[in-house]
């Protein structure tokens, strides 16, 4: 049966989320409800037992796309711009002084293009490009020029506070606004891990954005996952899993490779 209307026999299956639909109308409804773009995730983890010739062919074509995109990025004139390199180097150095390992991607990558993070030398303060992800509602919001001294709780107020949030946003995120604020958790993915072993750090909502980013690896800009304690499912928080070591020893290059693959896929 169609998983949208539950009335008709299913005819289609979404390549992205594997939901069954019976018609174009139901396909559009499911995309709207789940914020699904209907595009198959070429970098999704596939176990060895489920790996087929089609997966092998898909990986081969994906690597070809990666090669073409990397070549196009290398030819981009901004890639060789002295001014751009100097600005990015300065931004990384300022972050390093704040104990933040900020890394930037080559020109042509989606996160590089959309990143608007700046450092105000007069105020000696970062203004971050920030992405908020609300997985239980399949919603994402992008914030620009967020001062680094702003507490995370104040950043979230326009979204999940029952009184201060925008009515339209409040309706979309009603599962959050209806829950006690003590159940809200803010997580950030740890970058130095393999794609099939994703772990998160839990952040302190009462502290500033800068304090929470210290000691972390940031690729271009922070992405914060806002989850509810009772519904976080398989989002494993580092230090709360008894079988989990203190920190992964996977190489940093593996982490960057994982992120860059996803970004190349987007820009392709």
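^ Assign residues to that structure.
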């Amino acid at each position: 049966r169609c998983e949208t209307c539950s009335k008709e026999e299913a005819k289609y299956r979404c390549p992205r989320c594997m939901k069954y639909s019976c018609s174009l109308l139901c396909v559009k409804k499911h995309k709207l409800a789940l914020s699904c773009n209907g595009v198959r995730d070429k970098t999704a983890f596939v176990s060895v037992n489920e790996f087929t010739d089609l997966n092998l062919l898909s990986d081969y074509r994906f690597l070809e796309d990666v090669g073409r995109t990397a070549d196009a990025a290398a030819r981009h004139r901004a890639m060789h711009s002295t001014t751009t390199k100097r600005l990015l180097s300065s931004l990384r150095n300022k972050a390093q002084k704040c104990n933040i390992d900020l890394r930037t991607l080559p020109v042509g990558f989606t996160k590089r293009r959309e990143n608007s993070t700046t450092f105000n030398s007069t105020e000696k303060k970062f203004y971050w490009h920030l992405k908020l992800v609300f997985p239980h509602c399949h919603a994402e919001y992008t914030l620009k020029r967020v001062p680094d001294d702003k507490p995370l709780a104040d950043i979230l107020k326009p979204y999940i506070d029952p009184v201060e949030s925008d009515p339209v946003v409040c309706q979309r995120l009603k599962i959050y606004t209806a829950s006690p604020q003590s159940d809200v958790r803010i997580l950030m993915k740890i970058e130095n891990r393999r794609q099939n072993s994703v772990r998160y750090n839990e952040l302190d909502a009462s502290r500033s954005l800068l304090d929470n980013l210290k000691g972390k690896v940031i690729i271009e800009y922070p992405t914060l996952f806002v989850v509810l304690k009772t519904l976080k499912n398989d989002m494993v928080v580092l230090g709360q899993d008894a079988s989990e070591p203190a920190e992964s020893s996977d190489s940093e290059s593996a982490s960057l490779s994982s992120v860059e693959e996803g970004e190349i896929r987007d820009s392709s």
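Residues 53-75 form the longest helix (23 residues).
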